[in-house]
């Protein structure tokens, strides 16, 4: 099987890999999702007994008869925001005691008992379609969203009629009201804030904290497919830069037998000053009293405030505030609290250069590390991820045990080299996943008694994902230029030192929140395939990418074009000076999303350096992208017109002198097709030839097998033809 076909069929080699781990309170059992093989897109729910190391399938969609998915629109949108490319059981929840798990398949609700010798998935009679079910802490109820309303069903209640088992918690008068939904994350929260949920159970199961989203003021855009003119398309509420956002509120709703007996309590903060609801949930004080927590952010994103609230009275208290002259970064995993009620937070270091992990007002991680996320808080233990100083391509886990006054890195058993790690922690049991340069895919182990770091019990979880049929990546990494740009050069496996020069292909993402230069073999598989076709492939993480410093990330504030392009050129020239095999007379660049923007930017503004570009799903006019992302870097377009103009590609169209291929999914609701259409129209108006590849029915993720395979082959052909005679341009 060719690499393009294999990559498409395996969904970029993710199928068959274990993920979405949950750990039992006693640390003796883990649940996870995994399909049965590297080309099987249907994920099952699995359990592993750590005493015996045995795995067991708890729920298989094929056995249930729900493998052929018929997803409700809300679930399709949710998966698009999650960039979920698999099928089957893609998410699940468990109760606190690890006695039950609940999940949805094709809009239907299922649960499985985790106790007993013969677990069997059972359906619950509910109002359908079901979206994002959430099991209560005691496991006796499931909350879910259907028709824009939050509903609750009792797992053990008697009776067969749906009406007898379910009741609506959200406002019944708003069911079906256009623009109003309860219990779901709004577009901005899911796309830009990594908040994919809109409801949370109270720790004692007595109430739900629920979002109410009203997007009636948000502009409506139509996403249609010209290949199917009989299809009217679908309308989306898209909050473009400078325009209205959805109005998001929070309410505590007691769980009562009937909705009429439940009186909701609104949680009100200054939503005019802090309109973005970033995080929400619950915590319990030392006396066990449930308390609402939430973080909210200003529209200009220079202020982020943590609030606590009394769920009974609705009184809100300002607990902690962060400010920044550029923007306050939303950090994963925070806020959280230790067992004694101390705030766990990621904030700026005293010199402002990095981010540190704080418990209370005390930093607890190395002063020179770059803290990335809080992974888990388990009683007095905090597990976070960080990059050691000067090594942004490495991601390690760091365990802080406040009771034992321990702070140390968590090492993967038997691994000495650098890598990229992720994990979970509960009940003194650690799930640890590792990718590195020596291994195809990832390895997962479960470590008992993790706080002692003695690893008296280590169990490996099988990874059924396929490895690519490629030579081992031939990668050289270094820091390019005076500013130290993380860079990697990927060469053909057959290339010998001193042999003739190779055409160069830059393969960056180059923008915020993503790195390509990592100490992980899977990060280079696509680049290695292009290298095997005869290219020297250069990957560089310039300013704006994470992992280096706060100043490095914020260097793009007010200008999304100049720094990122300059750093690609600097890395290219630095690589040419270090390695004698780069032909600077034949240089191309390819990328997707922000990388697509960067690729088009390169040939438009630096035709002296770049001779061809493939731009996939590019942002071409930042006025067409969403509020939270775009305004973070460029401000409001009404106030910063010059910044938007300088970062746009449209005014550069008349200057195109090189070959440019634009690729875009017609069903993309993140970077809508209008971006490519407007740039193409500007190029046509200027008489500049170019290639447009519209993808019918494809969203921002090209996961359909034939499309994903041929996209790589078409790009390769275009790049080869374009560089055969780079002196000839449009």
From TrEMBL:
Any idea where the Dipeptidylpeptidase IV N-terminal domain is? 127-355
Q: Which Pfam families match?
A: DPPIV_N, Peptidase_S9
GO MF assignments: dipeptidyl-peptidase activity; serine-type peptidase activity
- Domain Peptidase S9 prolyl oligopeptidase catalytic, by residue range, is 525-724
Q: Which PANTHER family match?
A: DIPEPTIDYL PEPTIDASE 9, PROTEASE FAMILY S9B,C DIPEPTIDYL-PEPTIDASE IV-RELATED
Q: Which organism is it from?
A: Haloactinospora alba
Q: Identify the domain of life.
A: Bacteria
Question: Which InterPro entries does this UniProt record tie to the protein?
Answer: AB_hydrolase_fold, Peptidase_S9_cat, Peptidase_S9B_N, Serine_Prot_S9B/DPPIV
Provide a GO biological process annotation. proteolysis
Listed name of the protein:
Dipeptidyl-peptidase-4
Record-linked SUPFAM superfamilies: alpha/beta-Hydrolases, DPP6 N-terminal domain-like
UniProt-listed Gene3D superfamilies: alpha/beta hydrolase (3.40.50.1820), Dipeptidylpeptidase IV, N-terminal domain (2.140.10.30)
């Amino acid at each position: 099987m060719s690499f393009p076909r294999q990559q498409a069929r395996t969904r970029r080699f993710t199928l068959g890999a274990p993920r979405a781990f949950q750990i039992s309170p006693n640390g003796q059992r883990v649940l996870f999702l995994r399909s049965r093989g590297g080309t099987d897109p249907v994920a099952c729910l699995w359990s592993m007994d750590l005493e015996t190391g045995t795995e067991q399938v708890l729920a298989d969609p094929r056995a249930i008869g729900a493998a052929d998915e018929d997803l409700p629109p809300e679930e399709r949108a949710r998966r698009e925001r999650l960039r979920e490319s698999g099928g089957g059981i893609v998410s699940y929840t468990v109760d606190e005691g690890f006695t039950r798990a609940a999940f949805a398949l094709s809009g239907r609700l299922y649960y499985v008992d985790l106790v007993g010798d013969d677990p069997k998935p059972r359906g619950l009679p509910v109002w359908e379609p079901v979206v994002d079910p959430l099991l209560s802490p005691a496991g006796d109820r499931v909350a879910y969203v259907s028709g824009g309303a939050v509903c609750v069903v009792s797992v053990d209640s008697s009776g067969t009629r749906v009406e007898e088992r379910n009741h609506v918690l959200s406002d019944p008068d708003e069911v079906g009201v256009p623009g109003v939904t309860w219990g779901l994350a709004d577009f901005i929260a899911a796309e830009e804030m990594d908040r994919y949920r809109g409801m949370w159970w109270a720790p004692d199961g007595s109430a739900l904290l629920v979002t109410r989203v009203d997007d009636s003021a948000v502009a409506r855009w139509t996403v249609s497919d010209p290949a199917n003119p009989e299809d009217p398309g679908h309308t989306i509420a898209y909050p473009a830069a400078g325009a209205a956002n959805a109005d998001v509120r929070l309410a505590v709703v007691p769980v009562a037998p009937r909705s009429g007996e439940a009186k909701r309590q609104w949680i009100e903060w200054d939503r005019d000053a802090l309109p973005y609801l970033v995080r929400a949930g619950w915590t319990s004080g030392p006396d066990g009293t449930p308390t609402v927590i939430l973080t909210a952010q200003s529209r200009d994103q220079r202020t982020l405030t943590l609030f606590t609230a009394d769920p009974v009275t609705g009184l809100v208290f300002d607990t902690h505030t962060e400010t920044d002259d550029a923007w306050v970064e939303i950090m994963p995993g925070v806020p959280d609290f230790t067992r004694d009620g101390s705030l766990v937070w990621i904030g700026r270091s005293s010199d402002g250069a990095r981010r540190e992990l704080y418990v209370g007002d005390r930093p607890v991680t190395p002063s020179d590390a770059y803290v990335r996320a809080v992974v888990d808080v388990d009683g007095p233990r905090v597990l976070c991820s960080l990059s050691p100083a000067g090594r942004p391509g490495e991601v390690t886990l760091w365990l802080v045990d406040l009771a034992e006054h321990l702070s140390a890195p968590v090492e993967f058993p038997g691994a000495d080299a650098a890598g990229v790690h992720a994990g979970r922690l509960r009940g003194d049991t650690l799930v640890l996943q590792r990718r590195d340069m020596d291994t195809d895919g990832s390895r997962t182990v479960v470590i008992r008694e993790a706080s002692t770091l003695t690893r008296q019990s280590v169990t490996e979880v099988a990874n059924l994902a396929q490895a690519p049929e490629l030579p081992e990546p031939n990668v050289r990494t270094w820091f390019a230029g005076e500013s130290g740009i993380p860079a990697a050069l990927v060469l053909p496996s057959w290339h010998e030192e001193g042999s003739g020069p190779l055409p160069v292909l830059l393969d960056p993402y180059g923008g915020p929140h993503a790195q390509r230069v990592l100490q992980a073999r899977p990060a280079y598989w696509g680049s290695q395939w292009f290298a095997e076709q005869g290219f020297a492939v250069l990957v560089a993480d310039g300013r704006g990418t994470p992992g280096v410093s706060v100043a490095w990330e914020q260097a793009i504030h007010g200008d999304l074009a100049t720094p990122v392009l300059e750093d690609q050129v600097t890395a290219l020239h630095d690589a040419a000076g270090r390695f004698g095999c780069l032909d600077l007379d034949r240089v191309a660049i390819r990328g997707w999303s922000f990388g697509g923007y960067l690729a088009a930017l390169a040939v438009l503004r630096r035709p002296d350096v770049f001779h061809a570009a493939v731009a996939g799903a590019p942002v071409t006019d930042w006025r067409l992208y969403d509020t939270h992302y775009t305004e973070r870097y460029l401000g409001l377009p009404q106030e910063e017109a010059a910044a938007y103009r300088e970062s746009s590609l449209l005014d550069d169209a008349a200057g195109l002198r090189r070959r440019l291929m634009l690729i875009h999914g017609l069903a993309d609701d993140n970077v809508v097709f209008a971006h490519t259409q407007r740039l193409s129209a500007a190029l046509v108006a200027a008489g500049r030839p170019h290639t447009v590849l519209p993808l019918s029915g494809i969203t921002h993720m090209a996961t359909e097998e034939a499309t994903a395979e041929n996209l790589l082959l078409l790009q390769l052909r275009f790049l080869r033809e374009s560089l055969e005679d780079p002196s000839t341009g449009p």
